[in-house]
Amino acid sequence: MPELPEVETIVRGLREPLLGRRLLRARLRYAALYRKGSLRVTWLVGRVITAVERVGKNAVFRFDRSRVMTINLGMTGRLVLVGADNTGRPATHKHRHGRFIFDHGVELDFYDPRRFGYVYITGNADLRSELNLGPDPFEISTSGRELGEALRGRRAPIKSILLDQRIIAGIGNIYADETLFAARIDPLTPAGDVVSRSRELLAAARKVLRRAIDHGGSTVRDYRRSDGSSGEFQQHHAVYGREGDPCLVCGEVIERIVLSGRSTHFCSLCQK
Ligand SMILES: [Zn+2]
After folding, report:
1. Which of 41, 172, 260, 272 has the highest count of CB atoms within 10 angstroms of its CB?
2. Cα of 48 to ligand 1 centre, how many Å?
3. What's the pLDDT score for residue 124?
4. CA 17 to ligand 1 center in whole angstroms
5. What is the pLDDT of residue 1?
6. How far is the CA of 5 from the centre of ligand 1 (A)?
7. 82 and 159 together in one domain
8. pLDDT (tens digit, 9 = 90+) per residue, 245-256?
9. How does pLDDT run across 201-239, given as a tens digit for each residue?
10. Residues 6+ apart with CB under 8 A from 17
11. Is 125's pLDDT higher than 90?
C-alpha cells in the first residue's frame, strides 16, 4: 500500500506535467470507486489544475473554481502518466478504471486491480477534516510536543497508533516498523508510555520518510512511480520484510508478529 513516501514520489512526478493544464475529458468506470459523498469526475471537465499535492497518503489535485479531486490508492492503486506520444502507456488496459485527458494530450490514468482505492471530488477546501486526517510528521513541531499530546494516555500499542491516520497521517505498515526500529521502540509499547520519547520518535519518522522519498519509495508489490518505474527503498529496509534475517545493528534475528491484523517486524534486542 502506498504510504507517504510513495505518494509523495508519485505527486512530484505528476506536478510538472499537469500544473496549469485544462481537463478535457474524464471518466471513472465504477461508481463504487467514488468515496461516499463525492461529486462526479465530469464536474472537473473544463477546469485547470492549480496544484498537485499530497495530503497524508492521498494524492490531491486542485482545480480552479475550488474543485478538488483526491485519489486514494488503497492497496494496489496506481497513477500512470501517459504522454501525448503514448510514452508510459502500459501494455494492458486491464484494471484501468479512471482516465483524465488534458489539453496538451497528456493523460492521467488510475489503475486499481483490487479496487480498495477511491476517488473523492469536492468543492470544500477543508479536505483534511472531510477526510478525517491528522497532520503528517512534517506538519507538526520538531519538539515532539504535539505528537506527545496525541499519544498521551493511549493504551493501544504504539505501532497501532502510528497507523491511525486520524492521529498522524501518512504512515502505514512499512514506515511504522522502520520508524520504531530507528527510534529503538518496541512496537508493543503502550503509546502513552512513549510520550517522553516523542521527540526522538518524530525525528526517527522524519528521517526514515525522507530517506524513503530520496529513494523513490518502497516497491514491495504493486507500487510504481507515475512513469512506471519501481522505488528502491525496499533495499534499505532495516526490519520490514526482513523476518529471519540478522538485525543490521546487533545481528539478532528480526522477528515478525501479527499486531491488530498487521504484520509487524522488529528486533527484540534493539527495540526495548
Ligand atoms: Zn538489533
Report:
1. 41
2. 51
3. 79
4. 43
5. 84
6. 24
7. no
8. 999 999 999 999
9. 999 999 999 999 999 999 998 899 999 999 999 999 999
10. 81, 106
11. no
Query: Pick from 69, 101, 130: which residue ends a domain?
Result: 130
Q: Residue 137 forms beta bridges with which residues?
A: none
pTM of the model: 0.96
d(CA 242, ligand 1 centre) in Å: 12
Residues labelled catalytic: 2-3, 57, 262
Ligand 1 centre distance from Cα of residue 267 (Å): 5
Residue 137 has pLDDT above 80, yes or no: yes
Kindly tell me the burial class for residue 108, based on how many C-beta atoms sit within 10 Å of its own C-beta (0-12, 13-18, 19 or more).
Answer: buried
Q: For residue 136, how far is the Cα from the chain centroid?
A: 10
CATH of the domain at 21: 3.20.190.10
**Number of domains the chain is built from:** 2
Is residue 272 in some structural domain? no
Report CA(234)–ligand 1 centroid distance (Å): 18
Residue 250 within any structural domain of the chain: yes
Instruction: Count CB neighbours of 123 within 10 A.
Output: 11
Q: Which domain holds residue 64?
A: 4-130
* Tens digit of each residue's pLDDT (9 = 90 or more) over 29-69: 999 999 999 999 999 999 999 999 999 999 999 999 999 99
Co-location of 154 and 189 in the same domain = yes
Please say whether the beta carbons of 101 and 110 come within 8 A: no
